Amino acid sequence: MSSSQTWKKVAWRSPSNIALIKYWGKYGRQLPRNPSISMTLKNCYTETEMEYRFGNVSNGPVLDFRFQGKHDEIFAARIMHYLDDISNEKPFLKNLEMKVSSSNSFPHSAGVASSASSMSAFVLCLLVAENEIMGIEKDEEDFLKEASSFSRLASGSAARSLYGGFVIWGESAFIPHSSSKYALPVTEVAPVFQTYRDAVMIVSSKKKTMASTRGHKLMEDHPFAQERYGQARVNLSRMIEILRNGDQMGFAELLEHEALTLHSLMMSSIPGYIEIKANTINIIDRIREYREKSGVPLAFTLDAGPNVHILYPEEDKEEVIYFIKHQLKDLCENKKWIDDEMGTGPERLI
Ligand code: PMV
Fold it and tell me: In terms of CB atoms within 10 Å, which end of the chain has fewer, N or C?
């Protein structure tokens, strides 16, 4: 173990991801009630830089946290809570001081969920710091597995941001070694799906009605919970098959079914709540009408908020962007939408 007591620096860029098969409901220590599959994004990411020093304090961790250049006490408190939660597994934290500065590529108010990218970027920095301090050497596979597992403890969906392409988190008989503790890349993917893009229609940048932690909690007494967990398993195995065989219309149908199911679960929670807005529905209607008329296999999905993600293959990019500009943009808040695509996963910057 080095106790150099000098400041060192590490930085990572980590992407956001959008779930195709949704994780909704958890138990124990952030374990998912059903497996999920996501697509990793490229342009929506967090960059986190951590300066760290080991051995000068004994009652740590000590954290100075800045978001977009400014001290952010709410986020700092969330990270301190997380560090406290992992303190048994990571005893080196007691002697650690950190100056962390984090920023998102997408505007904070864009209504794009940022906990997956921000938490995974933070965890990547933390684990590099630990390995450096403790003189641990890990191969890339083990490092990413550990980063995924510790990201999961910070925010469930963050577990999936450690890999590029399509990613599974949770056990499935169809993907060897898949686990509820960490995510793994889905490697058998037809060429057309490897070109998929994501255009995010920003319907509202306001805070969601219900934090996702409460949303997950409401699944515990949800009248349809058991039915949903069984259905999600079936949908996941269907999605794995579709990704393998390249069935784009099958993909569209299943993707949209999952999105609408997630929001139906919110509406039928006790108490029920609504995250979608009128323009979420207007955009969905236009997407379906356009697909029907044009034959372009674009499809929508939603995360826990009102914004609409449109997934489509690269070969239809020009037509889809024309459609967005002429038929969807006006339904977005301040005509705002994000042009994104599939990404390759986190990148170490320093
Ligand atoms: O990671 P959390 O706790 O914010 O939950 C994310 C839940 C959804 O975004 C709605 C679905 C998912 O699988 O990402």
Answer: N
